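GHMP kinase protein
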Amino acid sequence: MLPFLGVSMNIVVTVPAGCGEILQGNMDKRSLIVACPVNLYVTARVVDGVFDELAVPEKSRRAVAATLRYLGEKSFPYALGLSSAVPQGKGMSSSSADIGAVITAVSAAFGYEMTEKEICSLALAIEPTDPVFCEGIAAMDRKSGEIIHTFTSVPPMSVLTFDRGGVVDTVSFYKDKDKDPDGSQDLKELYSALKKAGDDCRVWGAVATASARANQKIFYKPELETLIHLAEQYDVCGVGTAHTGTLYTVFMPSEKIFSAGAELVRAIKRTLPGLQYKGVYTLIAGGVSKRGR
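Structure:
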């Protein structure tokens, strides 16, 4: 495949980050993850110029190399830039968003449009992946990259985020067999509840809370039960976590965020001063946005 020779190149790709996961663990002996995409984005841009490997993170360089191999190309004849305000190592799908954006941008430069299945396959070869680059809210098999289901109804929820500190390297985390999230309880009933929920915020929040609790024996977070008890006093939808990160997520109906959100944040700061408030985001449909050529 040939690049667009003689044509000024300007491709811009955006992919949302995520706030932990709605659901992650074992389901019918499959490794399940249900994404939690939010309105915080990574942008990859391809323009005329020379590709500088040092201009992008190491995992993104690997994404470029994997995409070139997949397309049968030997080199990338353009400049590639990556911009992101997503915190690293917190469980906000920063690497997944980076990798998805890069794979899409590089392939588009050669006139090839990647499918979700192809992006998942390439991304999983680089690191364990959160499918924030898939349409809607995706439920993915973490090992095969298969999209098991796409939730098209996005519940109108805001996501308050709190960080307990430190960073987690996803690749190293999954090398520890004692921390395999597939060792948690079977989540079939929780997944079934999600599929029946539509955009019911209460069901989505309850599932996230149950999944966070199930993950405690994999990645224990000592503040979880206190946070759940406190949040319940403010009639939230639920409390989740980044299953392989340091993030806590509190799900609240979007219409209540202005009336009760600030009060809840203050209460959490008083009760759990070790948690740092990181901001409020909106749950959205995931997917890749691409423009230009």
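The helical segments are 58-71, 94-109, 116-124, 170-175, 188-197, 201-214, 224-232, 257-271.
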